[in-house]
Amino acid sequence: MAEVEEQVKPISCLHQEEDSEEEPKLKYERLSNGVSEILQSDAASCMTVHDKFLALGTHFGKVFLLDIQGNATQKYDVSSVKINQISLDESGENVGICSEDGKVQVFGLYTREGFHESFDCPVKVVALHPQFSRSNYKQFVTGGNKLLLYERNWLNRWKTVVLHEGEGTITNVKWRVNLIAWANNLGVKIYDFSTKQRITNVLRDNASLRPDMYPCSLCWKDDTTLIVGWGTSIKICTVKERNPTEMRDLPNRYVEIVSAFETEFFICGLAPLADQLVTLFFDEEDRARPRLDIIQPLPESCEEISSDALSVRFYQDNECRDYRLEHSEGESLFYIISPKDIVVAKERDQDDHIDWLLEKKKYEEALMAAEISFKNIKRHDVQKIGMAYINHLVENRDYDAAARKCQKVLGKNMELWENEVYRFKTIGQLKAISQYLPRGDLRLRPAIYEMILHDFLKSDYEGFATLIREWPGELYNNMAIVQAVNDHLKKDPTNSTLLTTLAELYTYDQRYDRALEIYLRLRHKDVYQLIHKHNLFSSIEDKIVLLMEFDKEKAVDMLLDNEDKISIDKVVVELDGRPELLHVYLHKLFKRDHHKGQKYHERQIGLYAEYDRPNLLPFLRDSTHCPLEKALEICQQRNFVEETVFLLSRMGNCKRALQMIMEELEDVDKAIEFAKEQDDAELWEDLISYSIDKPPFITGLLNNIGTHVDPILLIKRIKEGMEIPNLRDSLVKILHDYNLQILLREGCKKILVADSLSLLKKMHRTQIGDNGSWISVCVSDMAQPFSVVVFHCRHMFHKECLPSSGTIPGLQFCNICSAKRRGPGSGILEMKK
């Protein structure tokens, strides 16, 4: 079928809207070559299909053997009238032919030996045993007004047996393994050749139809399933084994009709397709085109999968009996035979599926199907389909989608890439394709990238900057682009986007000093990254103030992280004129290491006092290098009481410090806390003396000194008649604190007793030997030498402490175990000290 005269165009019986969306299931080709010549002067009457060749019978009594392309390879002149049926065995080596004039011929294609007979009535059907080529299966059947079985015996003679007669003309017969199915005027019979029994009779539904005008169609789906089509009804019959207990006089097998349903049109032929059916229908209204449908059988109905009306030649002159449907079991090929035309239907492959998708302009699905099945498609190329898709998107002005598909379709084909870039330039859509250009191992010529950059530079500074950031600098001539940017900056010298992009271009070109100048000028966030990445610390020694003004935190962190490249002394010199910035730097330096900047601690006192007083006191506490006298002078000048108090206490002048707390801060809690820290009896005396005439101070002392000073000393010195706020609460607190002290003492006592008991038990356990034995305690003088007796029960005694042996000399018992009525110990070990 590679060479065909023309392709048969099926006309769908569905509505036009549905046809535009539903893909056909089958494709059609007209069998031509030698067939065309045969049918010009003759007409096809029947055909049978083998996997290797075809056998065609004509109305003028000729049989042609054809290859699958339709070329005639052999011709047999069998009769002068119509050939009714041709049968082939499974091997394809033997053929049976019957004709309207009663001739029957069964012979080998390579031997011509066989059966040749003429009867006095037309022979409508013939069927060879499927294994006819084997010597044990030389049988065939013929059908006219009766069904005859021919079987060759051991004398090489043909024996005839009548299988059935009396019900009209036999119109069809099919032989499968050991089952013979035939149709006559009344119905369909099945004969079991292995048991020589007829096992069923399937009656025809519409007896009013003439059997010669609407013949029965028979088809074996498998070895036990027969499909019967007659008129407008279809029945699917399954041959099953009968239960041995039910046999009695019944055949070993029976037939069950698993599906039966009516169709809209008259049936001309049937063929199986997996679990579906291919049906050839004839619509007698107006002699319409024959229909080839795929249906899904159901128990009492069917579901239409697809339906195609076929434009066969001279279909207007044909009747239902003029059409036949034959199929090849080896592959899904279906032959529609009419007198003047033979059409081959076969399942659509992936190439056909892609053809349909392209025809419907479903390019995305076509491309996906081609990519999935690229190993199986023969007529299509993935890239060509992709190009067709890109062209379609461009025609529809969907430029972004078209550019995106270029990345997938064009792959590594540089020529195609450049052609597409120039096409997008022609239609003014370079921006659309710019983000999808290759920029990895595959690269286009630098001129391509420069052309796109120049196009962006004319109209879209932001887009230009994005491309510069995304594209590697090796894709284009960097100096040419730098020159173009400088030309634009002459017209707009303050444009931050162009300046930033120029800095990036200088970075690509390793001219970091120029890039740094621009970044600092713009106060760009990437300036620190640029310095770190390219080690530009030598270039920023005179720009430290600028960096600090831009971002103090980042600048200080960078300077401290790179002390080996920019020294502390250098930074201090640069920041000398900006004390507020110098303080930030020295403060962070001190936080990192209290000793690195020790020579600047004296200077830091004034900086903290001026710019950061909250951190002055922590600095004074942590620093061991700042001069206390200088710090005290500055704090006193600025009247920093807390800092002065700390410095006085640190210098040993605690009384003066406490005096400042009480007189200037007037904070009794802080004064008490200070006295607690110093833990000095004289300070407590000074505090009590200062507070004795100040009721609020007395309240504070009563609430806080209970655990440090005896409250009685304070209470005795309170003047009679003095009103003291919250005196009752303070006394309750003192009593509560005293009660708490008593509880603590009792707890300590319990702990002491428990520890004593634990130690006593430990001492008691020391009386146990290393092996767990017990020594009976006595008052013997342990300083004198002694002997020890050890029993198996682990009790030990001084030998002198044991009573004398009993009636049996040398046998002694453990006193303890004997007293408890336990078995005596045996085996005495004497140990001498």
Automatic annotation (TrEMBL):
GO cellular component: clathrin-coated vesicle; cytosol; early endosome membrane; Golgi apparatus; HOPS complex; late endosome membrane; lysosomal membrane
Keyword Chloroplast: no
UniProt domain Vps41 C-terminal RING finger: residue ranges: 777-819
CHCR-type repeats, residues: 556-700
Biological process (GO), any one: protein targeting to vacuole
Keywords noted in UniProt: Autophagy, Cytoplasm, Cytoplasmic vesicle, Endosome, Golgi apparatus, Lysosome, Membrane, Metal-binding, Protein transport, Transport, Zinc, Zinc-finger
Gene3D superfamilies linked: Tetratricopeptide repeat domain (1.25.40.10), YVTN repeat-like/Quinoprotein amine dehydrogenase (2.130.10.10)
GO molecular function, one term: zinc ion binding
Superkingdom of the organism of origin: Eukaryota
Membrane topology qualifier: Peripheral membrane protein
Record-annotated Vps41 beta-propeller domain positions: 26-347
Region (Disordered): 1-25
Compartment(s): Cytoplasm, Cytosol; Early endosome membrane; Endosome membrane; Late endosome membrane
InterPro entries: Beta-prop_Vps41, Clathrin_H-chain/VPS_repeat, TPR-like_helical_dom_sf, Vps41, Vps41/Vps8, WD40/YVTN_repeat-like_dom_sf, WD40_repeat_dom_sf, Znf_RING_Vps41
Any one Pfam family match given in the protein's UniProt record, by short name: zf-RING_Vps41
UniProt function note: Plays a role in vesicle-mediated protein trafficking to lysosomal compartments including the endocytic membrane transport pathways.
Protein family membership: Belongs to the VPS41 family.
Designated name of the protein: Vacuolar protein sorting-associated protein 41 homolog
